[in-house]
Amino acid sequence: LAFFDLVIGNPPFSYAEKHIQLARERGRWVAFLLRLSMLGSQRRASTLWSQPGLYSVRPLARRPAFIRPGKPLRSDNSEYGIFLWQHGYQGVAQLLPPLDVPLASRRHVG
Fold first, then answer.
1. Which own/partner contact pairs does 58-62 have at CB distance under 8 Å and 24+ positions apart?
2. C-alpha distances out from residue 82 to 3, 69, 72, 85, 109, Å
């Protein structure tokens, strides 16, 4: 398998754990845009979050808007954050201050 310096993704929520596992097997750093609700659940506490490597979580102050072909650009009702893993990291994950980046445009082009 190839090994990459950085893997970036925004997987569908229902497949996020599988994407995270695969990316962590193949990348030194992994950065994913995920719903903050990924932090919850008893099952993930004993699987995904029981493994070392999560370096930081940075919530987004504004909800991202997603492109859906043929439909207007809109956000959903979930809070999101950027989750960052480092291969070999054994420390405690940092909760960073929210990132407040203005949306460039809410107008869908195309």
1. 58/82, 58/84, 58/96, 58/97, 58/98, 58/99, 59/96, 59/98, 59/99, 60/98, 60/99, 60/100, 60/101, 61/98, 61/99, 61/100, 61/101, 62/100, 62/101, 62/102, 62/103
2. 21, 24, 24, 10, 26
Does the structure show a pLDDT above 80 at 1?
A: no
Q: For tokens 């990924």, name the residue.
A: 38
pLDDT > 90 fraction of the chain, expressed in percent and rounded: 63
The secondary element (H helix, E strand) that includes residue 26 is helix 16-26
Which pLDDT does position 104 carry in this prediction?
56
